Amino acid sequence: MEAQYQGDNVLILADDFTGANDAAVNFALNGAQAMVMFHPENVPQAQVVAVNTDSRALAANQAEQAIKAAINTVGLPGHSHWLVKKIDSTLRGNPGAEVSAALQASGLAGAVVALASPGLGRTTTNGQCLVKGIPVNQTEFASDPKTPVTDADIIHVLQQQAERVCYLADLACVRQGNLAATLQACFARGVEVVVVDSETAPDLTRVIEAVASLPVRPLLAGSAGICEALAQYLFPLAATSPLLPHSSGPLLAVVGSMSEIAQQQMQAVMQHPLVTHMALSAEQALSADSESYLHECVQAAVAALNSGRHCVISTTEHHDARHQVARLCQRYQLNRAQLGEKLCLFLGRLTQAILSDATPGGMYLSGGDVAIAVARVLGAQGFTIHGRIAECVPWGEFTGSQYLRPVMTKAGGFGNTDTLLEVVHFFEEKTK
C-alpha cells in the first residue's frame, strides 16, 4: 500500500481510546495537528494520527491481529516516519503481543521500549515497572477488573506474550551517552526488543535522541511519557493550547473506572455544591430488568442537568466494588472482559438517552472502555484533540458525531484526588 504520510509524521497505535488521547495530546500541545481515529480505514492525512485498536482486553492472538490489520489498512508513513506502539504504563493488556505484531507487520527489525511516564509517577528501574516507586504488581493494578497485572518485570511480560530476543539497557547506559551505540549493536546481533530504563523526563529525551540518530529507525514503544519526549523533539516550539469554546450548560461526567484514584476523585467532587452524583448498581444494570433501571437513571440525570446541576455518573456504589468483579462474573456466567463490555454498553446507552433529553455544555469520560462505548453510540469516527485541561485530561471534539460540544477524557488510574473537581471548576470558569 502506498504510504499516506510523508516527512516526520507520526503514526501511533494505541490499545484504548484514553491512551490514544494521552499519547497524541502531547503533539497537539506543541502545535501539531493531532487526531485519534477509531477505524483504520478512516485515517486522514495529519501530522500525528493515533489509531485506537481497542485491543487491551482482547486475547493476545486477537490483539496481534488488530495491530496487523491496522498497519496493513493504514499503510506506513514515508521514509522519515515515526511508528509508535503506545502501551499502558502499568503493563495492562497485551504489550508483548502487540509490539511483536507491530514489528512483523511493519517489517522493522527491532523495537525500543521505554515504558516510563515520570510525570505520572511511572518509572522503570532495572527493567521493573514501578508506580510511585512500587512494583506495579504490588499496587491496585494487580486487581484491575479487566486486565490484572501479575508481573512487574517488563521483559518477562513481553516474552510471556511473544518469543522475541530482548535486552535491557539500564540507567547507566542511558545517562552515559552510549545508548545509540548500544541500540545499534543490539540490533546488529539479532536483538529484537531493547527495553530502556527511564526515571526522569531527561532520560526519555536521551532515548528519543538516540533512536533518532540510528541509520534505520526502529519501532518506538512506550506510554505517554515517550510520546511527550518525541513531541518536544519533533515540534520544539510549543503552541498555546486553545481554550474551551463558550458552551452553556452544566457538565456531564461518566466515570467507568473502578480504580482507587477514580474513587477518591469521586469523593472529592461530591463536595461541590452543584454536583449531583449518581452511583449506578452493576447488579441492576446487568439484571433482566435493566431497561427499567436505565429509564430510571435517565430521568434522574436529565432532571439534574436541566436544573443546571453538574451530573456525575459512576459505576460503583461502594469503595470495594472492584473486588466484587469475580462474584459478578460468577453470578452472570461472564468472564471479566464480557462483564466490562456489558457495563460499558449500559453506560453508553445511558449517555445517549440522556443527551436526547438534555444538552450538557460538555462531557467528561473517565476510563478507556467507557469513553469508546460512548463514542460509538454517538456515532463518532474519531477525536480531534485541541489541548489539555489538567495534567492527564485531554480535551477535544468528536468527529462524525452529532454531539459537537467539548469532550474531556481521562485514563482511569491517572490524576490526583482533586482532578475531577479541578475539571468542574475549570469548566465553570471557561464556559461562563
From TrEMBL:
Identify the InterPro entries for this entry.
4-carb_acid_sugar_kinase_N (IPR010737), 4-carb_acid_sugar_kinase_N_sf (IPR037051), NBD_C (IPR031475), NBD_C_sf (IPR042213)
Q: Which UniProt keywords apply?
A: ATP-binding, Carbohydrate metabolism, Kinase, Nucleotide-binding, Transferase
The record places domain Four-carbon acid sugar kinase N-terminal at 11-230
Four-carbon acid sugar kinase nucleotide binding domain residues: 252-420
Q: Ubl conjugation: is it a keyword of this entry?
A: no
The organism is Mangrovibacter plantisponsor
Q: What is this protein called?
A: Uncharacterized protein YgbK (DUF1537 family)
What molecular functions are annotated in GO for this chain?
Answer: ATP binding; kinase activity
Q: Does the keyword Metal-binding apply?
A: no
Record family assignment:
Belongs to the four-carbon acid sugar kinase family.
